[in-house]
Every structure is written in C-alpha cells, then in structure tokens.
Specification:
The protein has 3 domains: 109 residues, Trigger factor ribosome-binding domain (Alpha-Beta Plaits, 2-Layer Sandwich), CATH 3.30.70; 47 residues, no CATH class; 96 residues, Chitinase A, domain 3 (Roll), CATH 3.10.50. Strand 9 and strand 10 form a beta hairpin. The radius of gyration is 22 Å and the shape is globular. The strands form 2 sheets. Strands 3, 6, 7, 8, 9 and 10 form a 6-stranded mixed sheet that branches. A 4-stranded antiparallel sheet has the order 1-2-5-4. The longest helix is centred in the first third of the chain and has 31 residues. By secondary structure, the protein is of the alpha+beta class. Helix 1 crosses helix 2 and helix 5 crosses helix 6. It comes from marine metagenome. This is Trigger factor ribosome-binding bacterial domain-containing protein. InterPro entries: PPIase_dom_sf, Trig_fac, Trigger_fac_C_sf, Trigger_fac_ribosome-bd_bac, Trigger_fac_ribosome-bd_sf, Trigger_fact/SurA_dom_sf.
Length: 284
C-alpha cells in the first residue's frame, strides 16, 4: 500500500492511498464465497450457490461493498503508519478502481494538533477507572448478530429491516435525472443504524420493478465547523427485496465466531477486551 500525506494546516491532513489490485481482488473473491454461503435464492440449496451466480446477480453491489470496506480499513491502517491521531470521521473522495489498476482514493481528516506544553511534570493527574456496563456487551453482541445475518429473496413489499437492491439516480431541482450521479445495484438496509429515517419511511412498501422518487434532508459538517443542510432527491428503481434473518444468540453462535465453547465465554472475552481498551485510553 502506498500512502502520501498532505498537510492542510495544523489540524487537517489528506492521505492519498493506493491499494494493490491483488489485495482488492483477494477481498472480492472472499466476499463472493461468503455470499454464496449465506444467500438464499430460489432453485439453490442454502450454502450451495455457485460463485458464478453470485457474481452475475450481485457483482456490482458486492464490488461497491468491498471497495467501501477496503477504503475504511486501509485508511485506518495508513493513519496508524503515519502516526496520525484522527479526531473526526474521514471524508473519502476521488475513489477510482479501473480495470487492471489499483484502488486509489483520498481520505481527508482532522487530526490532533501538536501542542508544546511546558512545566507539566509537576502536575498531578487522576486516572479514571471505567466500569464495563452489561449494556455495552449486549450492544456488541447485537452488532455481531447484524454482521452475521443471512438474507433470502422474498416476493412482497419491502418492510423495515429488509434489504433493497436498487438503482439510484440523483435528481435536480426540476426532477430531471443527473446522469453522472447514478448508482446501479446498490444495497440499502431499510432501518439501518446509520440510515436516514425520512428515507426509510419513503422506501417501506416498495415493490420489485417499482420506481419511486424520494426526498430527504442531508446534514453534514463543513470544514469551518458549521452544519449545513440541503435537500437531496433520488429516483429509486427496486430490483430485489431480501429479508434478513438474525442468528440465534446462543452457544452455537459463539462457537461459529471463534474458539469459544459457550456464549458466556464469548461475553467474558468481550468484557475483558472492553476493560483493556478503557484502561489503555485512561492512560492517554
């Protein structure tokens, strides 16, 4: 992985990152295999769907998912290698993945500024001790269940919690499609943790083959710290509706995740990891 860092002031950095083609291709193959085991499609036994079918049906959507995840992971790795301490969510831009070429993208982020503090050695510091609440463990387990959910195609209207595979295209103020702002075979989880609830409500009830125009308010923070809101409009063409099924939170679930003999053993590991992370954080 190649990384170039540009300083945009005392607290802003832009990382230009290049990920080797082979790394992305490997991740993509693993994703195809994973989906071939978890998807439920008519005419195929669960876990026996050929990879070629997965590629033909969901190739573009899986590629987008892999690229997004690769960008997030490589950005974090690059930040650590460069000794940066981000204090904001990174903005990913200028992403490019052409045939035969590596994955290239830029990540801009605010970082912890360097401070010149004098006469600090005589200061007394009280290190807080954090208690790991059981709700933290349950929240982590809930996230693991979400990550290991299986999906099956259904012939009904979309409901909260379903995944829609659809084509999205942004509309201008007059309702005309903006050609270069279109996405094909995008996967969208209705009611996801980070989803826009206005958009969720407008997608509930969608049927395969239906075209809907949706509008919602997008909020983001500018570089000067000001919050900006603007209306966004999209035309959505639903192509497939898939129902998600969460795994049972039991001993078998824990065994599938790793070297755990029971759910309680998995919970213990989570508590220990959270406690260690909190202790390290309190030490600065």
């Amino acid at each position: 992985m190649k990384v170039e860092v540009t300083d945009l002031g005392s607290w802003r950095r832009t990382l230009e990152i290049e990920v080797p083609r082979e790394d992305v291709d490997t991740r993509l193959k693993e994703a195809y295999k994973s989906y071939s085991k978890s998807l439920n499609l008519p005419g195929f036994r669960k876990g026996k769907i050929p990879v070629s079918v997965v590629k033909a049906r969901f190739g573009p959507a899986i590629l987008n998912e892999v690229i997004t995840k690769t960008e997030e992971e490589c950005y974090r790795e690059a930040s650590q290698e460069q000794g940066l301490t981000p204090v904001s969510q990174a903005t990913i831009e200028e992403s490019s993945f052409e045939d035969g070429e590596p994955l290239r993208f830029k990540a801009s982020v605010d970082v912890k500024p360097e401070l010149d503090i004098k006469k600090y050695k005589e200061l007394k510091v009280v290190r807080p001790v954090y208690k790991v609440e059981e709700s933290f463990v349950e929240s982590q387990l809930s996230g693991m269940c979400e990550q290991n959910a299986t999906e099956k195609q259904v012939d009904r209207k979309a409901a909260l919690g379903d995944v829609i595979q659809a084509d999205f295209v942004e509309l201008d103020e007059d309702g005309n499609e903006i050609a270069d702002r279109a996405q094909s075979d995008r996967m969208f989880l209705i009611g996801g943790q980070n989803a826009n609830h206005d958009l969720d409500n407008q997608l509930v009830g969608t049927e395969v083959g239906e075209t809907r125009d949706v509008q919602y308010t997008h909020t983001h923070e500018l570089e000067d710290g000001e919050t900006h809101e603007h209306e966004v409009r999209f035309r959505v063409v639903a192509k497939e509706i898939r129902e998600r099924e969460l795994p049972e939170l039991d001993d078998e679930f824990a065994k599938d995740l790793g070297p755990f003999e029971s759910l309680e053993e998995l919970k213990t590991r989570l508590r220990d990891d959270m406690k260690a992370q909190a202790d390290n954080g309190s030490r600065g």
